[in-house]
Amino acid sequence: MTEKNVITAIILAIILSVSGFLGYIYYADVAAMSSIEVTINDVYITDVKFTSFKLKLDANIYNPTDQDISGLSSAFDIYIEDNYVGEGGFSNVFIPAHTQSEKDVSITIYYSGLADAAVDVIKNVITEGNFDLIISGNINGNVLFGLITFSQEFETTHTYS
Q: Which of 71, 148, 61, 142 is nearest to 105 (CA)?
C-alpha cells in the first residue's frame, strides 16, 4: 500500500468512527426523551378569570435511561370529546440519568370549550358509558450535546368510564 492510501484509510476510519459515535449519542438522546415517565402529584387552581382559569400541575418527570435529558419542553392542547378546552406546557427541564425532576406544568382551561365538552360528555356517558380526554402537542429537547433540538409530536388519549 502506498503512503497516500494509508493516509486515506486512516482519515476514512476516523470519519466513520466519529460519525458512528455521534449517531449513537443522537439515538441514545432521542430514546431517552421517548422513555420519560410523567406522574401528577397534585393539581391547583391558580388564576380564575372571566373566560378561563389556570391549573398548576405538580408533576414528576422521571428519566429511566442512562442518558441525561436537557432542554426538555412541551406545548400541548387539551380536548375533551374532540372539544378544545385548553392548552398547557412546560419548558427548560434538565433530568439527569436515572433521576426525576419536579416541574410545575401550567394549563389554561377555557370555559367556552368546557360547555361544549360537558354536553358531549353527558351524551357519551349515557350512550357509551365513557368519554375521552385527549392531549396533543409537541415535545422538544436538546440532543447531541445540546447542538441540535429534537422535536416530536405526541398524542395521548385517556378514556374515562
A: 61
pLDDT per position as a tens digit, 73-126: 888 888 888 888 888 888 888 888 899 888 888 888 888 887 777 777 777 777
Distance of CA 110 to the CA centre of its chain: 22
CATH number for the domain harbouring residue 139: 2.60.40.1820
**DSSP per position, 29-79:** HHHHHHT-EEEEEEEEEEEE-SSEEEEEEEEEEEE-SSS-EEEEEEEEEEE
The total number of structural domains in the chain stands at 1
Residue numbers of the domain that contains 17? 3-160
52-63 β-sheet, strand order: 37-48, 52-63, 99-110, 83-95, 69-80, 131-143, 148-160
**Looking at the predicted structure, is the pLDDT value of residue 53 above 80?**
yes
pLDDT score recorded for residue 131:
75
Cα-to-chain-centroid distance, residue 143 = 14
Burial readout 89-118 (b: 16 or more C-beta within 10 A, e: otherwise):
bbeebebeeeebbebebebbbbeebbeebe
pTM attached to this predicted model: 0.69
